[in-house]
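Task card 7
Instruction: Convert sequence to structure tokens.
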Amino acid sequence: MSSASSLKNAGKVVCIGRNYADHISELNSAKPKQPFFFLKPTSSILLPRAGPVLRPRGVDLHYEVELALVLGKELRDFDGVDEKAALDAVDHYAVGIDMTARNTQNEAKKKGLPWSIAKGFDTFLPMSNIVAKSAIPDPHRCELFLTVNNEPRQLDSTELMLFRIPRILSDISKVMTLQKGDIVLTGTPKGVGRLVPGDIVRAGVKVDGKEVEDGRIEIVVEESTSSYEFKET
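Output:
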């Protein structure tokens, strides 16, 4: 099986937004009629033990834990009716935290601007080690969790996804070809919230109540020394 470093070889990271009803409600967003997705740059990937998450100056940093799919084959205009074929196209899983500059994103939503800045900073995608498919027999029946300073913040089952993996892969592949090694983040459950420098974030995935070791993330938040500072567009 590939090592976590192979995640950096992804051609793209495609993120599904608004895929859990309670998360939609907590952000006062509209429920999508079909899968809604956006891109994160591969430069935002933060591998295990590669350093802290860096909060840019003026940014309201939020966490969003997600189940990640790593593609094992090319998909183009894929028919999502066949669930087995969809899962066979996944080489392995991982856990990712879609870090988000929430104030930047809220401004973008209000003004009809892209989300690229809000989602794209370096270190804004901490990833776990890769998880063998055998460790998650059914990706629609596992639990995602996240804690901040040992306080539970997110804990929900992937059974609550509004759009399941076959539909997700189908809709993405009708717009852009999914290539081997690409990463798909499947959405975050409720409980997203703010992070500040000094916070210690732990996240992962459980199957039948037991944590999957390779899916574990532990990361600290630090203030960025970059010259960037959030200013209204």
